[in-house]
UniProtKB/TrEMBL annotation:
Classification of source organism: Bacteria, Bacillati, Bacillota, Clostridia, Lachnospirales
Superkingdom classification of source: Bacteria
Catalytic activity reported: ATP + protein L-histidine = ADP + protein N-phospho-L-histidine
Record bears the keyword Kinase: yes
Name listed for the protein in its UniProt record: histidine kinase
Subcellular location field: Membrane
Source organism per UniProt: Anaeromicropila herbilytica
Alphabetic keyword roster: Kinase, Membrane, Phosphoprotein, Transferase, Transmembrane, Transmembrane helix, Two-component regulatory system
């Protein structure tokens, strides 16, 4: 009987010892986790994660959950910082693009108040109206981009002839090509090119790309519609100044322009708007540069029948 009590007492003491050890390790883990959390939260540029001193399954599960939350918080911080930088850059670009033509127009308004010839008066008035139009275009494109990005503008998805829309849009820019002494080459298939889309949206895409080509292109304009498999690809190609891979990476970003001085009559929104509308119409848009030529390709699925 004494042996039984001795064994029972020993087992009980062993259990108590195990519980005490587990409790000690539990407290050590909790203190260690708390300390690590304080360090991680106070240091913003660290990639450290929580670790456990002793292996305890319930503590390890808790640490894994907290580490996942820490990763999410870090990713959110990175995203917020990126958005803040983009926002500041956007505001800077808008301010510059608005201030430059307004400042120029203001200078010519002052010159109009001086004693000048009729010829100079006509020249200055033309410049003022031109700068005023630049501001108008910027505000219209900015408003349009915001409406497109927010989903406020609704685009139809009906059967339309992409070739006909391209021809109509090219006709709108006949005088612009003529003024540059350029006659673009156009290569089109014989039959219609039926896609699912919105006529006005497609016309805006083509118009923005053509305007960009006229302003930035160096001539040798070539436009064509290719049918490959189950899609139509509309290709806009022109001679261009040298472009880097970075230019191509950012070419569709809002307010991006290769003209870092931002003195040309562009807002950096035209291709961004073209990309947004293309996406909403179910198409894809890509830009390439090769052997002195810049090329934009837009693809839409073919509508059978």
């Amino acid at each position: 009987m004494d042996n039984v009590w001795m064994i029972a007492t020993f087992v009980l003491l062993l259990i108590l010892l195990i519980i005490m050890i587990y409790h000690i390790y539990f407290r050590i883990n909790i203190k260690n986790i708390t300390k690590q959390l304080e360090e991680i939260m106070n240091i913003t540029d660290t990639n450290s994660l929580l670790t456990v001193v002793a292996k305890q399954s319930d503590i390890a599960d808790l640490v894994n959950i907290i580490n996942n939350m820490v990763r999410d918080i870090r990713q959110s911080r990175i995203q917020i910082n990126r958005l803040n930088r983009n926002f500041r850059k956007t505001i800077t670009n808008i301010s510059h693009d608005l201030r430059t033509p307004l400042t120029t127009a203001g200078g010519y308004v002052q010159m109009l108040q001086e004693s000048i010839t009729d010829e100079e008066r006509q020249e200055y008035t033309t410049i003022i109206l031109e700068r005023q139009n630049m501001v108008k275009i910027l505000l219209e494109q900015l408003f349009e981009y915001v409406r497109i990005e927010s989903g406020e503008i609704h685009y139809e998805h009906v059967s339309i002839d992409a070739k006909k829309v391209l021809i109509d849009t090219l006709t709108m820019y006949y005088d612009d090509f003529n003024n540059k002494g350029q006659e673009p080459t156009v290569q089109l298939p014989e039959g219609p090119c039926i896609i699912r889309g919105d006529e006005q949206g497609l016309k805006r895409i083509f118009s923005n790309i053509l305007f960009n080509a006229i302003v930035h292109g160096n001539g040798e304009y070539h436009f064509e519609v290719q049918e490959s498999g189950d899609c139509y690809t509309i290709v806009f190609s022109n001679g261009s100044e040298p472009m880097t891979s970075e230019d191509l990476d950012y070419i569709f970003d809002r307010f991006y322009t290769k003209d870092q001085s931002r003195n040309k009559k562009t807002t950096g929104l035209g291709l961004a708007i073209a990309k947004e509308i293309t996406k909403r119409l179910g198409g894809t848009i890509e830009a390439y540069y090769n052997n002195g030529r810049f090329q934009v390709e837009i693809s839409f699925p073919v509508v059978e029948g």
